[in-house]
């Protein structure tokens, strides 16, 4: 499957997929049966539109596939978009799904100064080193980031660092691991993303899909 009029949509395969699929279906895109078969090892799926396929990848990789033009459309959280900050990605529609926020957290029994405005240097475990670095730099604080891919909440109790920057939704993961939120950084939702070059060369087609997603959100 690769011709110049093929449209590839990159979707995140993790927790957000079950919120994404009703939207994909509401704009009239239905993947082939293998998409819902847990035994299937397929990674690219045909749809009811002969020129449209769906790939299912890690949420960070959605941004990379779209930025490099390997996929023309996708769905990604603004956590991922801000972390990469790819100029090639345009994010025109807030899909109003994947609601959570990014926060700084630390052990509830941490004795030192927990007022961020008093810090000059912090060591932080996070999946978002660029975003974390920029956030603290804006406040004149140098952040030394230790990149993890998940389970950040383990880092303080095992002595990797004292603080983490991670996503929070219900707060249950922080609580279960003896951490408390110190500062909220940013609200997060998932966005429809488009490769900017493709938007120029295939503007009627891609703007048409952008409009359909907008209408689906407005109607929901
Ligand atoms: N607890 C949460 N509640 C709501 N949305 C979340 C939550 N955690 C993450 N998200 C959103 O979903 C996206 C994907 O989540 P996450 O990075 O945790 O992936 P995952 O489901 O663990 O899968 P993978 O690591 O394989 O990509 C995040 O980028 C974020 O925008
Ligand atoms: O506030 P809560 O409702 O507990 O949600 C927050 C958790 O959800 C995400 O992790 P996820 O479950 O996706 O696992 P991960 O550690 O692999 O990213 C995030 O990284 C937090 O750990």
Automatic annotation (TrEMBL):
<keyword id="KW-0328">Glycosyltransferase</keyword>
<comment type="similarity">
    <text>Belongs to the ATP phosphoribosyltransferase family. Short subfamily.</text>
</comment>
<comment type="function">
    <text>Catalyzes the condensation of ATP and 5-phosphoribose 1-diphosphate to form N'-(5'-phosphoribosyl)-ATP (PR-ATP). Has a crucial role in the pathway because the rate of histidine biosynthesis seems to be controlled primarily by regulation of HisG enzymatic activity.</text>
</comment>
<dbReference type="Pfam" id="PF01634">
    <property type="entry name" value="HisG"/>
</dbReference>
<keyword id="KW-0368">Histidine biosynthesis</keyword>
<comment type="subunit">
    <text>Heteromultimer composed of HisG and HisZ subunits.</text>
</comment>
<dbReference type="InterPro" id="IPR013820">
    <property type="entry name" value="ATP_PRibTrfase_cat"/>
</dbReference>
<dbReference type="InterPro" id="IPR001348">
    <property type="entry name" value="ATP_PRibTrfase_HisG"/>
</dbReference>
<dbReference type="InterPro" id="IPR024893">
    <property type="entry name" value="ATP_PRibTrfase_HisG_short"/>
</dbReference>
<keyword id="KW-0547">Nucleotide-binding</keyword>
<dbReference type="GO" id="GO:0003879">
    <property type="term" value="F:ATP phosphoribosyltransferase activity"/>
</dbReference>
<feature type="domain" description="ATP phosphoribosyltransferase catalytic">
    <location>
        <begin position="58"/>
        <end position="213"/>
    </location>
</feature>
<protein>
    <recommendedName>
        <fullName>ATP phosphoribosyltransferase</fullName>
        <ecNumber>2.4.2.17</ecNumber>
    </recommendedName>
</protein>
<keyword id="KW-0067">ATP-binding</keyword>
<comment type="pathway">
    <text>Amino-acid biosynthesis; L-histidine biosynthesis; L-histidine from 5-phospho-alpha-D-ribose 1-diphosphate: step 1/9.</text>
</comment>
<keyword id="KW-0808">Transferase</keyword>
<keyword id="KW-0963">Cytoplasm</keyword>
<keyword id="KW-0028">Amino-acid biosynthesis</keyword>
